[in-house]
Amino acid sequence: MNHFVLSVNPEYTKLIFDGTKCCEFRKRIPKLMSPGDTLWIYETKNKGGVGKVIGKATVKSIDDIRSAKDGIVEHVFEDWKTENSIEYNMEWYTNDAFMNYFESIGGCSGFVFSINIDNIETITPLDISCFAKNSVSLKRPPQSIQQIDCPDI
Questions:
Q1: Are the CB atoms for 148 and 138 separated by under 8 Å?
Q2: Could you give the CA distance from residue 134 to residue 95 in angstroms, rounded to a whole number?
Q3: 125 phi and psi angles, rounded to 5 deg
Q4: Contact status, residue 145 vs residue 6, Cβ threshold 8 Å
Q5: Would you place residue 152 in the very low, low, confident or very high pLDDT band (cuts 50, 70, 90)?
Q6: What is the pTM assigned to this prediction?
């Protein structure tokens, strides 16, 4: 099983931990990521975040989503959720905030990956230096996502 640190803005960590958001969308994902892997969720400092790892989740599945279909982002998401039978809170995924988020990560210009998560839990906040890559402590959080050594936590 692999471990990854995932940087997430505070507005989305709240949605993840309250069960509203069960998918994390990224332009790219590590090649070694697969179902069953552990994601350590780092809440970024911007917009009042704590700048620490505040939780973890398990990768349930990973999907490629072709982003632009007839130029309408909504069609893309509708097709994807139907094909993959993803359980989600429809209210958040159909509002303007989601569409802006989806477009901001490349949803209108190429491919987007959906990392579908479950077993979501909060942890006592940990500094990023508690995590390591190749036995060297991380000095800063990843821009998006980074594979790490199995933490001794």
A1: yes
A2: 41
A3: -55, 135
A4: yes
A5: confident
A6: 0.79
